[in-house]
């Protein structure tokens, strides 16, 4: 499971690319460098934890524009900006759009590596979440609409009879649905169900939870 | 006083002097026939000499003319002077060996009577014209042993500007009118030549001044031009600096790990990047520095190649792409490298600007160099911007006419003047499909290695 993390760098300067390649090699990271934003965008996403080191000024696209473009493509790659001509508004925009860090160029190698590690951690976390989402999604999808309602209400802490009156069904029916939910979601206890619901809420925010 | 107008008045009609046209056939009373002919020949030759004499040779020819006359007429000294605030300042003179030279200035305060005569444009003869009351002049003559003197005032546009004088210390001389007429002619020839020389000098000075003004202006516009590139330049220096900073830190880590082979590579990279950064700075310093222009064989292809990195960032930030087709194949032109850098940079920056305007579909800037037959190296800069009309193509070279928010509007006019000072041309035409095409050509001066 410990794949070498990949750091993508988009910088059209060969000197900078060489220096970063050397730094990353020593740090045990793999560098994949691109001269232009377009080249990077046409590159397939990889399986390893990865992040992007980006100058604000790129040959073909502004770094901030590339950040936006990635977001539109739903490519949630953590970005570390590093630039020789940054300013505060630029940094604010980048950070607001979710950048991990906005570093000056030149910067200390340690600072850059720390930022990259942070970015890679974020990516790992994201990837883990996605994996979990992939596991959970079919389970949730297997529930009937009624079972889903019951699941969410149980998770919200409602007792069976309250659920029954709220859904205008019999207590017996609620118990039946509840048994099906536990079975379909492969849960053993009410504590498991609450925990599962929490995870689901984090990973699948689209699912509507009753308040 | 000044000789600035070359128009020489006719003879000064002082008392006892007849019009030159009426005296031609009259013999000199003091010269026998053959001698007179020889003298006329001497004057004719002198006159002919001065027709073609160059400004630099005027002075020596005047002195030689004075000498010839002194020798021919068996005089002792002669001089040409110009009127100054103090008196008659002697500019050219000749004296036979053993005779004291003319005073540097014949002071008005010292020779009031003499000075008055000259000022009034009247011919002065010693001793005939010197009255008894002119005590100081008499004293001077007695002291120096001056026996005889003739001074003829010289006029330019009606005003006395100086005089020509002849002196004898050995014997008294007669100065018949015919001789005075001829000597006045000599004085006029000299005055004329001097006026021409001064006009020449004034012209040279004016040209020099114009050149130096152009260079000053070129420098000022160059600074303005560079100011557009500051971001670009900062980037071009910053990138290698960053690589250096990163590599040196990594090299320290590598040392700790004992990977000397990689340390060596890192150090080599550091060295190359340091050189790269300093080259950028040297190039900018070369353009910013205020130096006398110096012409040497320059390959325009090379100049463009050097400019490309400075322009790269600017083009990138404006969304322009720069394409270089250098096909002048090592042909050199003799020019001031910095000035030509300026001209090319100006054209390229304009082109980048033109394609970055809103509503421009294509963003391509193409610079091409080639050799046109034997005599020209040509450069064209093509942009694909909105383009200029035929009239506007000429208007862009008019100083201070600018459509840009920033800048003086001097870039192209100074560029044209720099190119023309190098014997070349700079002009613009509408692009074939769109945009504008700037053409530059400079005379080929040498082949191969500069």
Summarize the structure.
The complex is a heterodimer of chains A (211) and B (450). Chain A has 211 residues and is an alpha/beta fold.
Number of strands of chain A: 5
C-alpha-based Rg of chain A, rounded: 23 Å
Q: Pairing-aware structural class of the strands and helices of chain B?
A: alpha+beta
In what order do the strands lie side by side in the largest sheet of chain B?
3-2-1-6-5-4
Taken in chain order, the helices and strands of chain A follow as EHEHEHEHEHHHHH
As a percent range, the share of strand residues of chain A is 5-15%
Number of DSSP-assigned strands of chain B: 13
What can be said about the biggest beta sheet of chain A?
A: 5 strands, parallel
Distance between the termini of chain B: 50 Å
Number of helices of chain A: 9
What does the main sheet of chain B amount to? 6 strands, antiparallel
The first-to-last residue Cα distance of chain A is 39 Å
Oligomer: heterodimer
Unreliable spans of chain B are: 1-27
Q: Tell me what portion of residues of chain B adopts beta-strand conformation.
A: 15-25%
Strand order of the largest sheet of chain A: 2-1-3-4-5
Task: List its traits.
heterodimer; A: 211 residues; alpha/beta; five-stranded parallel sheet; 9 helices; 5 strands; 55% helix; elongated; B: 450 residues; alpha+beta; six-stranded antiparallel sheet; five-stranded mixed sheet; 12 helices; disordered N terminus
